[in-house]
Each structure stands twice: as C-alpha cells, then as structure tokens.
C-alpha cells in the first residue's frame, strides 16, 4: 500500500503538480451594476443629494479606509486534547480614514486604531466642517457595515452615494492608497502599534498639502466625476 501511495505521488509530481496553498476566491462584482453606476452616475448623484441643492454646488469626494501596518498570524501548537490554548497575536496596525475631492484636490482624513461606525461618523463630521459655505459634499464610498449602520451620523451638508458591492475599481481613493503604501509603508518593519500610527500620521500630514498631486493620482479613467457635467445619461 505504501509503495502504491509513493508511486501515485511520483506520478503526480511528474505531471507537473505540486502541493500548493490555495488562494481564496472572493465574490465577484456584478459587471452590469458597475456599468450602470458609470453610465448613470449623474442620475444616481442627483438622487443622493437633497432636492434643494444645486448640482453645481456639489463637491464629489471619494472615501475609503486603509489598514496599514503588520498583523501576526496564528498557527497550530501542541496542547492537551479538549483545551483551547490562548496566544496573544501581535497587531501593529492602524486605519487611515480619508476622502479625496477631485475638483479641489483637498484631502480630509484621520488615523485611528479601529474602523467602526463611530469613526465613520467622526470622519463625516470632519468632511462636513471643511465643506465651503454654500457647497454640499457628495461622498462616494463602499458598502461596509459602518457606512450602512442606522447609528451613522451624517451632517446636513454631506450625502452618501454607495458603490455596488466589490467595486473598488470605481473608487479613486484606492489609487491614492496604493501610491501611499508603495512609497512609504512597503518593505518596512514597525516597532509597535504606536510607531505605525506616528509614521502614518506624519506621511498623511505631508501628503494633504500636495493638492495637485492628489488630483493627478486620483483622476484616472472616468473616475473624476462632477455631477454638474453629468455622465453619459446627461
């Protein structure tokens, strides 16, 4: 029997197969929903904002959060049957809440150790405080639970337009996060969670002053949407 198993193993390897770790398959976005969002963006935006707000007074902002840092993993350990060993997992991470306005190049955000409804409410409050008088912020965001919670507090001068599920490619903030991570956070080791937070805050404080660069990075292939210009639906 053992010789048979070994023979099968050799045959499998000879055919080019190896024992590999599989990658998870995530749910796919609905292409039709994405196309509908692109095609009818102007219409969806007008439905999201209050009726007394003029489309010309709307500032479109793309919003998201990025988790930055290091997160240790747990593996199997020897322990008595029936027991449940507990091991502290090393977490050196923080969340960067941010929103980018492609019309003005303004970036609004804050660094925090968690992502939840309270922090999202705080983020929207920050956006609302920085909206110029007479203007209205339309925040384009994904559908995470803390953006859908009934406890979420949305200022009067801010409206949310949620993207279709699994449609990160429709969110310009993903482009900005990718640039920030590659420039400042890739291939480095942090000493502690506090070290991560300090570094992210320093990088963010410097980045928000470069409005032209923010606009250039974020405005790509149909993502720079101004509802007063309209989409293909006019």
Provide keyphrases for this structure.
single chain, 234 residues, disordered C terminus, alpha/beta
**Global geometry:** globular
- The average pLDDT value, as a whole number, equals 83
The value of Rg in angstroms is: 23 Å
Determine the strand fraction and express it as a percent band.
15-25%
Q: Give the biggest sheet.
A: 5 strands, mixed
Oligomeric state of the chains?
A: single chain
SSE pattern:
HHHEEEHEHEHHH
Measured as a percent range, the helix fraction is 25-40%
Number of helices: 8
Low-confidence stretches: 221-232
Give a count of the beta strands, DSSP E runs of length 2 or more. Answer: 5
* Largest sheet strand order: 3-2-1-4-5
Distance between the termini: 72 Å
Class derived from helix and strand content: alpha/beta
């Amino acid at each position: 029997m053992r010789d048979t198993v070994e023979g099968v193993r050799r045959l499998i390897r000879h055919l080019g197969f190896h024992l590999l770790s599989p990658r998870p398959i995530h749910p796919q976005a609905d292409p039709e929903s994405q196309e509908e969002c692109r095609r009818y963006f102007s219409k969806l935006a007008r439905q999201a904002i209050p009726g007394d707000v003029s489309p010309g007074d709307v500032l479109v902002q793309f919003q998201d959060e990025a988790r930055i840092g290091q997160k240790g993993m747990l593996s199997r350990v020897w322990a008595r049957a029936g027991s449940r060993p507990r091991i502290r997992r090393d977490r050196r991470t923080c969340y960067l809440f941010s929103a980018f306005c492609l019309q003005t190049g303004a970036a609004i955000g804050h660094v925090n150790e968690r992502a939840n409804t309270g922090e999202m409410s705080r983020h929207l409050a920050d956006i609302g405080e920085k909206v110029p008088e007479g203007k209205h912020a339309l925040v384009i965001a994904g559908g995470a639970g803390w953006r859908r919670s009934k406890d979420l507090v949305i200022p009067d001068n801010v409206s949310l337009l949620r993207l279709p599920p699994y449609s990160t490619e429709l969110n310009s903030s993903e482009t900005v996060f990718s640039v920030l991570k590659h420039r400042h956070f890739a291939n480095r080791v942090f000493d502690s969670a506090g070290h991560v937070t300090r570094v992210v805050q320093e990088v963010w404080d410097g980045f928000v002053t470069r409005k032209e660069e923010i606009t250039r990075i974020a405005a790509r292939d149909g993502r720079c949407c101004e509802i007063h210009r309209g989409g293909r639906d006019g």
